[in-house]
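DATA SHEET
Item: assembly model
Revision: 1
Owner: S.N.
Input lines:
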Amino acid sequence: MPSDFISKRSSTLSPFYVMDILAQAKKLSQQGRTIYHMEVGEPDFATVECIVDAGIDALKQYKTHYTPATGIPELREAVAEYYERKFSVKIDPQRVVITPGASGALQLAMICLLDAGENVLLSDPGYPCNRNIAQVLAVESKTIPVSSLSNYQLDADLVARHWTDKTRAVMVATPSNPTGTLLPEDQLKELCQLVEQKNGRMIVDEIYQGLVYDADDYTALEISNECFVINSFSKYFGMTGWRIGWMVVPEFYIDAIDRIAQNIFLAPPTVSQYAALTALKESTQSVLDERRDEFKKRRDFLLPALERLGFAIAAKPQGAFYIYANCESFTDDSFTWVKQLLDEQGVALTPGIDFGSHLANKHCRFAYTQSLEILEQAVDKIDAFIQR
Amino acid sequence: MPSDFISKRSSTLSPFYVMDILAQAKKLSQQGRTIYHMEVGEPDFATVECIVDAGIDALKQYKTHYTPATGIPELREAVAEYYERKFSVKIDPQRVVITPGASGALQLAMICLLDAGENVLLSDPGYPCNRNIAQVLAVESKTIPVSSLSNYQLDADLVARHWTDKTRAVMVATPSNPTGTLLPEDQLKELCQLVEQKNGRMIVDEIYQGLVYDADDYTALEISNECFVINSFSKYFGMTGWRIGWMVVPEFYIDAIDRIAQNIFLAPPTVSQYAALTALKESTQSVLDERRDEFKKRRDFLLPALERLGFAIAAKPQGAFYIYANCESFTDDSFTWVKQLLDEQGVALTPGIDFGSHLANKHCRFAYTQSLEILEQAVDKIDAFIQR
């Protein structure tokens, strides 16, 4: 008889509760029910044609071998040029590391900065994979409750209060998942100063950059060259299945990151890198911006519609494609409520508990990764559920 | 002033010495010198046409979204069918996990089996990324010197002697990198029995499966359903840059592996998965086998040629595309020797030190990932270097 044991870091990994929702949605769908998918963190659009064509061209040219671990030089240069074009910041292309998705980038940053038993500070609510990646790397994630008082973001005061002698890094995301709020530039500036004083490092997740609706978009690189800045071709560039992202690292860490990447990935997918070159072209931007405008329209519909239904949305979501709504007028157990909503009306949401524990049972997340038409129908269904 | 600190697990990661060789080769090449690349662990062939065409078709159909974390069901089923066709073993497709390369698979296995401070047993010499992935996961790798007495592989006796109360897993590779030797079925059977007695788990790396020249190929799955069996589309299937592999896991671990994969990768690259479907087709096998036969021809030329030059090759390499040669008739510092060989004759090899420390300075690795014609020229160059 073999021994069925499992590491503690795996057995204690928190599940995604939305997986139960997905399984239930699939079952209902197989029974012929219409499902309104507002749980999905992936744009409904397929990758735009010119990017797909660039992928096809790369394959026709048999670009099928390994690339350098940190990516093809022309893509690293194109990313640097993109920052210059979009934000007027100059970045040495050597600081740009191409990664297998933003997940790969986050692994590199955490491995490079943290040893087992040390900790990284994160917001609650926040994207669950961040704390889970920390956990599988034997890093402790200290989650800090945030509210609309700080735009659902960390600030210098919160970080100062939660800093311990084992803290090495602070991670923020702007726009944030699940709240869609931005981290104001001043707030990030203060955070950077504090973290520098504490001899730590900032990790800034900008994977929803470009999907910003009311405010001016910015990058942490305008503030500091000493942050780890993570980005992705998945969201604004619409390349989810290609598994490609990037990270800009402080100069000191270039060699270390290269060596870690050589070991844990070997290299990012080759065809995705060539396709990404086209994603960054100025000529591609107008199509991508049209899609961003479509997301804005959806938010502009969904946000007031949810408020009218009685959801409380404490900080206006200004980016990404999520609304994190307080549903305590209807329930104090959002997970059960979300399951009932799906069962009765076919609307799938993500329960708050997937994003942390702070007031999680009073919240759920709406993703507007469906057409306006579907969102309108879904709102009617939710209305019917509430009125029942 | 920011604080330039780095985690211990990163700063103590051993470098790849072959990177110095590569840098030197690049410099010489830019000076117009001809370089004979025998250091490269990647087939020289591009991906075969029908697989590339399948990738193009997938893109034309806009297969650009995320897939499930463990891969598209049809590919998991195709892998299971492949085992049945090739080895007459029946595997539940649920046990097949599609991964971003074998590196991804190894990360999943180690995270699932080992906590920080526990250890995995590995052979020395062995593939360096295995111990480095362990290290970045805060897992200790205990390397065990092996020789031709055990086919440069671990055996039950060696493992029994090195087992500690912190040991959770034993990793073997057949065929092996750097030695190209196989792990005889009986030897693996004994290993599995011992590891089961010790309440540990076996991780079997079969990424060079299919590239076996004299012996009958087999899979650990013929022996046990309780091993973690890692495979890849990179080597026999020639899909290196696509970053796609797979792992067959014992039934008990299916859910845990799925959850870890969701967190650390989200999903393997989509287009690579569709292309891999064609790689597994029976109709593709003849082209892949022709390439395998070409590798065999190269080995059949290179092995006696190196022996004639005075290299000692203690265990006949029967698979992969490597020869691990003892060069102590020429040097007791193979790294310096390899650098001189490159400098004087333009032949690039990998020094033994990249694969461990056991007699590493007396060994170097030859990769026969170049045409016979180039290998012949390289052998003449090495001859001239030795005779100088």
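QC remark: The domain at 8-46+285-387 of chain A is CATH 3.90.1150.10 (Aspartate Aminotransferase, domain 1).
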